[in-house]
Amino acid sequence: MNKMSSIKKEFVPSTEEMMDWAAEIFNQGIRLPGYPADYWAENWIKEQFGSLNLQNINFDPINAKKWEASNAKLEIWLIDNPTERFNISCFPIPYTSPTNGVEAELSMISDDKDLSGKIAVYELNLTKLPVKMIKDLTGADRYYDPKNEFESLEQTVPFDMNFQNIIEPAYEKNALGLIGILSGYPWETDKYYVPYDALERKIPGIWVSGKNGKKIIDLMNKGKVRANLSYNGKISEVISHNITGNLPGMSNEWILIGTHHDGPWNSAVEDASGMALVLAQAKYWSQIPKEQRPFNIMFLMNGAHMAGGLGQEEFVKRNKEFLKNVIVAIHLEHVARDVKSENGRLIPLDDPTVRWWFVSRILPLEEITEDAIIKEDLQRSIFLPPDGFVPGSDGPPTDGHSYQPAGIPLVSFLTAPPYLFDPSDTMDKIHEESFEPLTRAVIRIINSLRGHSAKELRDQVLTKRERRRIRKKQLVIK
Length: 478
What we know:
alpha/beta; Aminopeptidase; Glucose Oxidase, domain 1; 2 domains; 15-stranded mixed β-sheet; two-stranded antiparallel ribbon; 19 strands; 28% strand
């Protein structure tokens, strides 16, 4: 192997160091845009970039919407027995309309029911996706599954089929408010930070846990039920920042390595773990002499991911000329541990959550990424299309979403464990065993891109149909 393309293992940060970074971030508190912990994270990133002697460290301001809510209350009672009332613990649905009190009869949502004058009740069941079904529906023909788990493995993702359109069905049916029941959650919680698209909803809404939701439905089965819900809420304009730092290399072209720095809670996996992965790349490449770096490298920590993904969207809009010289944008999110549910609690398991790799339809880039995954034994890895995974979407459901429609070659790593938007995303959910192999895999990808150019890769982008035809021939030959 060419010494220029080998990994200098002594420069790869250790698992312990990466876990220490993630823990320091996690320990600051809730990292939503505009919250003190996220501002702390921005300054911490700047300090870390400075300590590695990155050049041109820059804070680019992003206008974002901060959501704050408190004092949520839900009281329910049978209309025929108004003296016996039940107080139900609840959590305000982000970016909904706060209220001093909405009182109305409860009604379950159904397709043909007008809900005028009612509070809608909606049961959210997290989607369970057999990995085999994901493979079949997306046409995934690159995956690394040496234990042959994908034929039987089922993955619970942190959304239902409505994704972030939680309030809209109730609003469209003229409901006065919404009670969302987390029926399909494999543990007991009401703190589900979805939606996070920063779109202001015109009616109030709250989440209740599965057990409390069952109490509500059981009461509704006994007769007509009335409820009063209230909470304080505030949406304010704040400034978040995209933070960048550079290392020069032996090319006029660039590799971009990024993730986001905010999260819905203290959020170890989402995305303290991704920040640790990006920082690990910065530390590794800062120790490699300039003449051995194949490209210039920019390290990016986006802001406002939890406010509509504005950071990555604005970065692509504001840096069109720079991005013309980017060979590949590599985005790294969520080093997640698989879990099981036991007696209403989450139990961390030994295995990682299924690893999703959204890669542009460029066969050399796919091959380079696949080779790195196999060499680092990153099991449970599956390649997914860079668009259409969420039907109708023009980019992947990741922090690299805006790069695909802009025509920028993309490798976007992400996992989607069920606890991603819940406070149970704690340090024990990070699959720490993945830190070093993931870091080495990205180094391998960058080293293997030597000799390639931005124009060459972009000239090889395939349509979905072209790729399917070529890969069908390749797989027959194999």
